[in-house]
Design a protein that fits this description.
- By secondary structure, this protein is an alpha+beta fold.
- The chain folds into two domains: about 20-170 and about 230-320, Bira Bifunctional Protein, Domain 2 (BirA Bifunctional Protein, domain 2, 2-Layer Sandwich), CATH 3.30.930; about 330-415, Anticodon-binding domain (Rossmann fold), CATH 3.40.50.
- It is about 35% helix and about 20% strand.
- It contains 16 helices and 16 strands.
- The chain has helices spanning about 20-35, 50-55, 60-65, 85-95, 140-155, 175-185, 195-200, 205, 215-220, 230-245, 290-295, 310-320, 340-350, 365-375, 385-390, 410-420, and strands at about 40, 45-50, 70, 80, 105-110, 125-135, 160-165, 250, 265-270, 280-285, 300-310, 330-335, 355-360, 380-385, 390-395, 405-410.
- The chain is elongated and about 90 Å long.
- The N and C termini lie far apart (about 60 Å).
- Bound molecules: histidyl-adenosine monophosphate (HAM).
Length: about 425
């Protein structure tokens, strides 16, 4: 009977070479920038207790519809969920370990949301991000947002816009929520069916509707800016002034709301104009000054962002940025004796720090040389029965006009290194 052919689950993908190397390269660019900005790597679990994520909002789709939830085999079983994002886990870690603030961390890794899969929207996707906990200095906001701006620049992206807003604090929010709810109720006859449902649960989220029918109502909705407390308005002004001093280009987007409920004060999104509007957010973040406390920690302000690696790469494709492929191997070992020499020589060259590959299955000289060619290696090391008997190897320069010579196996590393660091021989 034929075996079933399994495929990757809906909404997930295999990232094959060379795309996998490009992704790793992108994460490396981010890690380098974050490290140089005083952020340290945090590795936290891929699943957490469900309660950690319930803090993202009781009426929020990410929590109510999109969590991958499961029970473990404990007695009694624990209710767990795969992480849909990392901010809640970071705050849980802060509350658990109480590091000295400010705690500046960066992260990268897969997130899981049970969404309707489409281009740029997956059930397993990757984020890179930073979080600064323990300070509400507006300059910390500027540092975080600025790091995002510089990251897209480092990738060579030119069509990413930064939108920012302030969602106010616990003082300003209730009055705004009430005014917004009253306005939306007043014009409910013009809203889409879906937005009417959202309106009952969380009026603010109606502003996030992308439906055409809702746009005229949203365009005239009251804006948070008119309701900000003095402290929040001052904070927002300081963030904008800081961004100005970096020559960071941004648009104040007075009706920008975010998909998660924990935000206070500064919120922002990075939008790629090269992508379709439905999935053009390539990153987003903001302040979440109450989240650590909600997770059992001390009152601790925080700000951060997460950038969607999958969408950034789609946007890079669309605007021809960041080709970032893997470096090819430097040396290819061709063994047409019995393969035993290749085992040892590959190991020796790799221990010397070189990138080395080889062929298997006792292929012919011609087939192995073809593989060597395709590998992009600069140097081929060739061992036949004569070389094996004499304890030597032929070192061939694969560059146009390159020659070849015999060396003793013991001198191989030196000969190959010389060839790689010198010119064509
Ligand atoms: P978020 O806006 O939900 O924020 O996600 C950030 C980014 O992740 C999005 O802009 C998008 O690029 C990417 N993303 C989200 N969902 C998907 C998906 N299904 N498929 C592909 N990419 C996706 C957060 O996650 C917050 N934790 C950000 C944050 C950090 N706020 C403060 N600190």
């Amino acid at each position: 009977m034929a075996q079933p052919l399994f495929r990757a689950p809906a909404g997930t993908r295999d990232i094959l070479p060379p795309a996998s190397a490009r992704r790793r390269g992108l994460v490396r660019v981010f890690a380098d920038l974050a490290d140089r900005s005083g952020f340290s790597l945090l590795e936290s679990p891929i699943f957490e207790e469900l309660g950690v994520f319930q803090r993202l909002g009781a009426n929020n789709d990410v929590v109510t519809k999109e969590l991958f939830e499961f029970f473990d085999k404990g007695d009694p079983p624990r209710h767990l969920a795969l992480r849909p994002e990392l901010t809640a886990g970071v705050c849980r870690a802060f509350a658990e370990h109480r590091p000295t603030p400010p705690w500046k961390i960066w992260y990268s890794g897969p997130q899981f949301r049970y969404e309707r899969p489409q281009a740029g929207r997956y059930r397993q996707f990757e984020q890179v991000g930073v979080e600064t906990l323990g300070t509400d200095d507006p300059h910390a906001d500027v540092e975080v947002v600025g790091l995002g701006v510089r990251f897209y620049e480092a990738l060579g992206m030119r069509q990413v816009r930064l939108l920012i807003n302030s969602l106010g604090d616990s003082e300003s929010r209730p009055a705004y929520n009430a005014a917004l709810a009253a306005y939306l109720q007043d014009r409910r006859g013009e809203l889409s069916e879906q937005s009417l449902v959202t309106l009952e649960r969380n009026p603010l989220r109606v502003l996030d509707s992308k439906r055409e029918q809702d746009q005229p109502v949203i365009a005239e909705a009251p804006v948070m800016a008119d309701f900000l407390s003095g402290a929040s308005a001052e904070h927002f002004a300081a963030v904008r002034a800081g961004l100005d001093s970096l020559d960071a280009v941004y648009e104040v987007s007075p009706r920008l709301v975010r998909g998660l409920d924990y935000y206070t004060r500064t919120t922002f999104e990075f939008v790629a104009d090269a992508l379709d509007t439905a999935q053009n957010a390539v990153g987003g973040g903001g302040r979440y000054d109450g989240l650590v406390e909600e997770l059992g920690g001390p009152p601790t302000p925080g700000i951060g962002f997460a950038l969607g690696v999958d969408r950034i790469l789609l946007a890079c494709d669309a605007e021809d940025a960041f080709s970032g492929t893997a470096p090819p191997v430097e040396v290819f070992v061709v063994d047409v004796a019995d393969g035993r020499s290749a085992v040892v020589l590959c190991d020796r060259l790799r221990q010397a720090g070189l990138g080395v590959d080889r062929a298997f299955d006792g292929r012919s000289m011609k087939a192995q040389m073809k593989r060597a060619d395709r590998s992009g290696a600069t140097v081929a090391v060739i061992v036949g029965p004569d070389e094996q008997a004499a304890g030597t190897a032929t070192v061939r320069d694969m560059r146009p006009g390159g020659g070849q010579r015999q060396v003793a196996a013991d001198d191989l590393v030196a000969a190959v290194t010389e060839l790689l660091t010198g010119g064509v021989q």
